[in-house]
Amino acid sequence: MSFYPICLDLAGRSCVVVGGGRVAERKVLGLLSCSAQVLVISPELTGELLRRHNDGVIQWIDREYRQGDLKQAFLVIAATDDDETQKQVYGEAAAHNILLNVADVPQRCNFILPATVRQGDLTISISTAGKSPALARKLRLELEKTFGAEYRVLVDILGAARPEILASGLEQHDNEKLFKQLLHDDMAAWIRVKNWSRLESHFEEVLGNRVEGDWLQKIRPFYA
């Protein structure tokens, strides 16, 4: 089966996790990192999930899953190895066209969760369409060594410069040219060693007087 890669905006959306163990914990934390509203259905929770519930971060229904529990859900993750529960969750989600992932059971999923590297707003995902999660994890670990924390800063800096360039009234092809010129091969390395003077010089060289406004003050908060 071939899956269509997509990034979902889950901010404020109702997401249900069936199960309260370690797998469920990882799924919940991933959903929370995207500002989802999370409901966990399980008679037991890990210590971390219980703490999140006590802090009011997640909702908790202290019992096994029942038919009808998914009626308000935008997305559901079944993080339980109970086959009968998986079948019931799958049936309800299918009946209502709800996004469903059953952990480690791709044949009961209408979406799968790739192995993901995150550095701030930079997201790199790896999928084998469920054929080899071990390979996806291996590649994720390799990518984490390549794309370190400097890329979090790099994305923020480029993100701050982008609206300044777009607001300068240049033609589209001129904007595209500036964006490409800003992406110097050594930018991540400069950030890694905190060579801010070289970074600013590069911005000066590329943008100069072609972009109006004090754009340098827009990027400095990310490294000052």
Record keyword descriptors for this entry:
single chain, five-stranded parallel beta sheet, elongated, 224 residues, two-stranded antiparallel sheet, Double Stranded RNA Binding Domain, 3 domains, Rossmann fold, alpha/beta
CATH homology superfamily name of the largest domain: NAD(P)-binding Rossmann-like Domain
- Give the topology string: H per helix, E per strand: EHEHEEHEEEHHHHHH
Tell me the overall shape: elongated
Which CATH top level class of the largest domain fits?
A: Alpha Beta
User: If you compute it from the alpha carbons, what radius of gyration comes out, rounded to the nearest whole angstrom?
Assistant: 22 Å
Distance between the termini: 48 Å
- Major β-sheet profile: 5 strands, parallel
Number of helices: 9
CATH topology of the largest domain: Rossmann fold
**Which structural class do the helices and strands define?**
alpha/beta
Q: Number of folding domains?
A: 3
Are there runs of 5+ residues with pLDDT below 50, and where?
none
